[in-house]
Amino acid sequence: MKHTCAIFDLDGVLVDTAKYHYLAWKELADRLGFSFTLQDNERLKGVSRMASLDILLEVGQMTEHFTQAEKESLAEEKNNRYVEFISKLDESELLEGSLALLETLKAKGVKIALGSASKNAKMILENVGITAFFDVIVDGNAVSKAKPDPEVFTLGADQLNVPYEQCVVFEDSQAGLEAAKAVGMLALGVGQEQDLPQADVVFPTLKSFPVGVYF
Ligand code: G6P
Ligand code: MG
Predict the structure, then answer these.
(1) 95 CA distance to ligand 1 centroid (A)?
(2) What's residue 82's pLDDT?
(3) Which one of 9, 120, 169, 198 is separated from 15 by 20 to 30 angstroms, measured CA to CA?
(4) Burial class (CB in 10 A: 0-12, 13-18, 19+), 4
(5) Which long-range contacts (CB under 8 A, 24 or more apart) does 181-187 make?
């Protein structure tokens, strides 16, 4: 079936920022004295900042070590480091095929939404120069419930007046794919098949996405 709306996750789908999230979390784990692997990091993809911290502390078996106020300051420490990384982003950090896909969808008249858990999303879109492609931007500042809750996708579709089943969601996270499927959107995984068992279909990169099949 043909779809009329594309909803993109940001980190790890359009822009190569997942590695900076990982580096910033890893620095925090190192400072707290435990190791944090790339495999552990899969669980953080798509997950909000505070929920990510909870998972990180669980990995380090430090869940009970901090008060809420201390946790907020740990999350801030991670974010400050992350913002240092992303303030230097430019279009070279766009992931393979993302710019071409946005251009093709735009030319076809497909509605384009952002559905990202990140509170830094707008800065990233600006720095890599793709803000203008989006008909609606839903980010971590706009939602009250984090993925796997589908709010980050339904808000965008609702604002664009598109039925959910006409939406295709591009995601690199398990939580995001679950969110899309929960409301009947087509859940396309971007990444490795073994990391994304919930996806309806997985593509290694956006470059290999067959636009004409879905739009
Ligand atoms: C994205 C990333 C997550 C990140 C979340 C919040 O979904 O995949 O790794 O934790 O956004 O990002 P923020 O920039 O608000 O800390
Ligand atoms: Mg992502």
Answers:
(1) 17
(2) 97
(3) 198
(4) middle
(5) 182/148, 182/150, 183/150, 183/153, 183/154, 185/7, 185/150, 185/153, 185/157, 186/3, 186/214
Going 63 to 121 to 85 to 207, the CA torsion angle's sign is: positive
Q: What is the mean pLDDT of residues 123-134?
A: 97
Q: Is 200 labeled as catalytic in the residue annotation? A: no
Please tell me whether the overall predicted TM-score, pTM, comes out greater than 0.70 for this model: yes
CB of 171 sitting under 6 A from ligand 1: no
Question: Ligand 1 in contact with 172 (CB < 6 A)?
Answer: no
| Residue type present at position 113 | A
Residues paired with residue 81 on neighbouring β-strands, in sequence order: none
197: helix, strand or coil = coil
Catalytic-residue membership of 11: yes
Domains of the chain (ranges; CATH) run: 5-16+92-214 (3.40.50.1000), 18-86 (1.10.150.240)
